Amino acid sequence: MELLIIDLKEKLLIRRKNEYEKMQQYSTNEAHELLLISSGKIIELDFIINSMSEMISYYEYSKEITK
After folding, report:
1. Residue 9 falls inside a structural domain
2. Is residue 45 part of a domain?
C-alpha cells in the first residue's frame, strides 16, 4: 500500500509539472480563462500531493512507534 501511495504521488508531481509547463505557454491576453483553470488544477494537485506526503509521514511515524 505504501508503494502505491508513493507511486501515485510521483505521478501527481509529473502531472503538476506538465500543467505548469502548459500554463506557461498561454499568453496572458489570449487565454486568461485557461490560465485560471490551469492555476486551479495546480492548486488542487498541490493540496493532494501535500496530503499524501502527510499520510506517508504519519505512516512512517506510526511504523516506528509499533517497533
Report:
1. yes
2. yes
